[in-house]
Amino acid sequence: MRRWFAKSLKRKLSLLILFAVVLPLLSMGIVSYSIATSVTEDKAKQAGMNTLKQMSDKLDFVIQDVENMSVFLIGQKDIQTYLNNEEGDVNSYSLIVGTLWNLSYSKKYISNITITPKNGNPALSTTTITNSGLFPLSQQYESVYKSASKWWSPLYEIQTSDGPKKVISLVRPIRDVSTFKTLGTLTVSLDQAEIERYLTGAGWESSGFVLLLDQYDQIMSGGDPSWLARTVGEVFPKMGELTETSGVLNVQRDEQPHTVLFNPIPRLGWKLVGFIPTQIYQKQNGYVLTVTAVTIVIALLLAMGMVLYFLQWVTKPLIKLTKYLKDLNPDETIPTYEVKSVDEVGLLVHSYNKLSERIGRLKDQVQLNEAMKKEADIMALQAQINPHFLYNTLSSIHWIALMNKDLQIAEMVGALSDFLRFSLNKGEEFCAVQQEISHAQNYAYIQAIRFPDQFEIEFFIDPAMLQTSMLKLLLQPLIENSLIHGIQKKKAKGHVYVHGELQDSQMKFVVEDTGIGMDETKLRAIQDQLALANRQLGMLSEVAKETKIAVTSYGLINVHRRLLLHYGAESGLIVESTQGVGTSISFSIPLGMGELAT
Asked: What pTM, to 2 d.p., does this model score?
C-alpha cells in the first residue's frame, strides 16, 4: 500500500486533501454539537435559575409581610394594654382576637397568630391549638431563640380543631413600648401547605421538583412528604453540603443524573433547591446530533467530488512535465525548455531554465564570502592591539596625576586600569579568588568616587580560599546589580556586604545589600528567568562541556548561565529579596573543579 501511494503524486495529494477536508468537517461537527448541547444545557439551567429567583422573590415578600405585621402587632395599643393588665378584660380579649383573625383570614399563607402573655392572662389565638411542637423546638434552639430579637423556627406540627398542620413560625418577644419590659410572645405561623403550592405552581419542570430549606438545611417544603423536617444531606447524601449561597451542581438520584440549582432567600438564610433530570435537555441534544451528522455527510460527499476534480485538473500538466524531464542527466548543463503556461507549472519550468545561471552566481558569491571572511580575520587581529594602547594611555594619565599630586585621580585611574586589564586580559576565564576580590574592590572604589556617601561596601572572605581558582567576573556584576537596582534607588545611605566562605567541599559567595528590595511579583519573575535558563542549558549540556561560551553580558542571567555551564546545575544563582529590606544573591562553587592559581 505504501509503495502504491509512493509512486503517484496524485494518490498522495488525494489522500492528503481528503484528510484536510474530512478532519476539519468532523472537528467542526463535534465542536458544533458540543456548543449546541452546552447552549441547551445553559438555557435549561438559566431558565431554572430564573424560576428559582421568582420563587425566592415571592417567598421574600411573604416573609417581609409577616415581619412587618408582627412589628405592627407588637406596638398595637390594645395588645400592649392587655399584656400590661394583670386582670384579663373579656372585651379587650374579643377585640384583639377579632383583629388577629381578620389579619390571618386576609392572608392565605398565615395559618395561625398567637399572643402568649407573660402575666398569666389567657393566650390570644386565631386557632384552637390542642398540641404544638414549637415548645420542644424552642428548647432545642434555646441559645438562638433567646439571643435574637426574632426567630424563624424550623418546620414543626401543631394539632388544631381542624386537624394536624405543618407550619413555620416567626417568634418574637413583645416588650413594653415605654419600659422595654418583656410582656409576652408573638407567634405568627405560616401554612406549609400554602408554601408548597407556591413551589408547585411556579412552572418548574414536570419531572423535577423544588425544595425549600431553612437556615439549618432542613427541608421545609417540596418533594416527597417523607423528606420534611430532615436535612438535605440525609435525603441526598451524594450531593454534599451547599456551602455556597447559590450555584449549580450535578448529582445522581435513583441512578439518574440530575442538575441541581440553588438560590438563597438572603433575609433568613433559607435556600430554594431545584432538581432537573438531565434527560430533559439530553433529548434535545439527540435531535441536534442527528441534524449535525446529516449535514456533515452531505458536506463530505460534495467535498470528495470537488477534490477529485481539482486533483485531475492540477496533476495532469505535472504528469506531462515528469515524463519530459525523466531522462534528464544531472551532471550536464540543464537544458532550456519551452514555457507554455503562466501558472505554477510554468513557473517551475522557468525556474529550471534559470538554474544554470543561478549556480554560476552562487559560485561567485562563495568566493567573495571567503575573501570577506579573511579580511574580517585581519581586522580582528588589528583590534587586539587596541587594549594595549588603552592600558598605555591610562598609565600615562596615572603618572601625570601623580606628578600633579592629585592622588584621588591617580588612584581612580589606577583602579580603572587594573579593572580593564583583569576583564580583557588574554581572554582567560579562570583566576584566583584573591584576584576576583581585587577586581570587585576596584569596581567598588570607582563607584564610590562617582557616587560619594551613597554606599559602603565590606568584604568578608575566608583567607583559606584566596588562592583557590574560580571562574572570573562573577562578583562584580552582582555588586553592580546591588548598586544600580538596590542602593541608588534608596534615599538613605546603603551597605553592600560580600561574603566568601568554605563549606564542606565547596566555596559559597553571598552578595547582599540594604537597598529597596523587590516585591514578590518582580522576585518571582527573576526566579522564573533563572529557571528557564536552567532548562535551556540543560538541553545543551553535552555541547556546552566541549564548547567555549563567549560572554557578551555580565547581567544576572549571564552570570547564572556561566555558573551552570562551568560548574553544573547545583551552582546557579539563588536570589532572595524582601521589599524595603534588601536583596541577597548567592552561589556555590564545588572545590576541585579548578586548579590552584599560581
From this structure: 0.46
